[in-house]
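As a warm-up, study this chain.
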Amino acid sequence: MRADHRRALALLACTQFLLLLDTSVINVAAPSMGRDLDISPAALSWVANAYLVSFGGLLLLSGRAADLLGRRRVFTAGLATLTVASVLGTVANSAAMLITARAAQGVGAAMAAAAALALLLMLFQDGPERHRALGIFAAMAGAGGAAGTVLGGVLTSWLGWESTFAMNVLVGIALMLPVRRLLPADRPVADGRGIDLPGAVTVTLGLALLAYALVSTGESGWRAPETLGTGAAALLLLTVFAGLERRAAHPLVPLEIFRRRTLRLANLLAAMWQMALFPMFFLVSLYLQAVLGHEPVIGGLGLLPLSLVVVVTASFADRLIGRFGLRAVMTAGFVLVAVGMAWQSLLTADGSFVTDVLPPSLILGVALPLVSITTNVAATLGTEEREAGLASGLVNTSLQFGSVIGLAVLSGVAAARTGASDATDAGVALTEGFGTAFLVGAGIAVLAGLLSLRLVLPALPPAGGSRGPGRTGTARRPQLAGRHLNRTTNRSPHPHTRPRETDT
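Now compare it with the structure written out below.
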């Protein structure tokens, strides 16, 4: 990997770390915000949820905008939006200002996330080099999710909740400064398509309403009119979007892309690992604080060992893929997720961090980069330069909605089991709820592992063609990568044969 590519990757990976950190940091800081500004529990939940709604709703549009306007330009605009929104959050003195700041942060995060992955796909060719880059990218994402809980506790306890926003201002500026020096200036895709405005409006509103409906379940419940009505409106808009795309001359998302079996299944698996794993960060932190009585800073630091294991495992995940094949590593990752979540379900009300949380969290720390890297690789295999933003938007949308659905479902399961418990001790009842939620997460991982066995990996494109800036590997590297990828299939690894990816 060239030195300039390493520096560009460091910038993109640090951005991904920040965006995932912002998803979880608010969970620890929110109670202090509520106390200081006298915010009701219902309004306080939207301080966290507004970010998820705007983030999830705008990822597809952001991916297309990155292709159309230039990835570096959209990436920089996203960081700038996130930074300005964080300034607003730092000085917020009401629930309305906080929610507005969080929604604007989500807009910036969607732009930066879609453009960051598209830039990575441009810089690194299919094969071991891209696997290594995606490994680092995924490690920083996983570490960001866990570090959000850690930093949320540390900053809130020591400097106040305002510091969680101020941190974004400083980091956002630091990330923007070297953009022009480290990232290549890509040209917008001149395909004559422009923006499919009806498609953009319907899919953005549909995804935003779907995210709204899902995150509302924590407050209103699955059967509440608000949840059902918003969910129905979201499905209607997404159905209209699909109809518009079939008839559009230049669709925002060409529906024929979903004929690619590998892409469909890889995006589903990306969502499923988030469904299983993302809620664990929130529930474990809650267990450490609400049941074991630790301070927020200790509850956050409890996930630090997991973050360290994620980084270490991701550093050699590309070698595992090269040795055993992509599908085998993916399946092994889902098996480890299932084992870790099942072990986590055995926690007790009178337990401790060392006996109940640490051992399974280390297993999950190994599993997280394995499933995240392999699903990202599979979802972006053979991506052409003109499709980089679209592929990025699709997989980021899958990941985002996987986390939202997982948190809604597993939190709902935990709440329902806690409410139905016969235990007189609140800590015991909460622990029973957490344990049941972790078992559901293990079940999702088992199902994902079985589905991963059906993944058929196409051979990589011919070795001779250039596919955008940064393609610096030798002609033979794609052939070698193709052999690694196809080791787990019966398909020919010959670089000039590419199996059709259609419905089967």
